Amino acid sequence: MRHPVFVALCLGGMAVLAACGRGTSDAEVQKALKDVNVIDESNLSDIMLTVGDPNEAVTYFTNTLQQNPDRPDLKRGLAKSLVRANRPAEAAKVWASLVNSGQGTNDDRVGYADALIRANDWSQAEAQLNLIPPTHETYERYRLEAMVADSKKQWKKADSFYEIAAGLTTKPASVLNNWGFSKLTRGEYAGAEKLFLEALTHDPTMFTAKNNLVLARGAQRKYDLPVVEMTQKERAELLYTLGLAAVKQGDVKVGRNLLQDAVETHPQYFEAAARSLAALEG
Prior knowledge:
This is Tetratricopeptide repeat protein. The chain is mostly helical.
């Protein structure tokens, strides 16, 4: 990980030596060094936005931005880092500063809307999305449009946006899961089941989709586990979810049996399932 920095430093040394050799002014030498520093910062910024600790990234971008207050890339990095650190309200303020500065892009406004949704400011998020031209067709934009439509119970609009978003990404599992959950909350259980299954074809490891799938099936009184990839622990947890769904439907005997299966299947002691089972038997 130190190689890019080392190479940049070598380049910086070569620039200084070359400058001195031909009698270049100090101003030009400083410019050469500044250009090298920008390369270093770019590499470090990428690291901070991907593998770095979110709070360390916030500190890095805050300090660097104080030294370079007019750089939009640093504002962008700070806003993204604040979102990763679960500080969406603060992120929204940084995004607002960027989009109102005249240096922001349509993607920045999408990021602003995302932070507002995370901060539970749905009306402002919708207002920001409405300012984005319709020609800006990206996955993130339509994913947020779908969520806003969902929050307003505009189901046809939401379905349309979810479908567009799913078609604009090579990894649609997350948006398909969100779409399925939307249908689950509407009581469209068969449609929700289909979407959760589709999400799992794209990401077989997504446990949230597996759990939602079991909820959709339980709501239809389908009390057998679906044929999807699962670990022993996941199987126990899905049996537990299905057991609770059965009890909620009034099928108490079925629910009790499923909870018993969950306790016996789990590789460790399954306290939540055992407690629910004891409550039923008590």
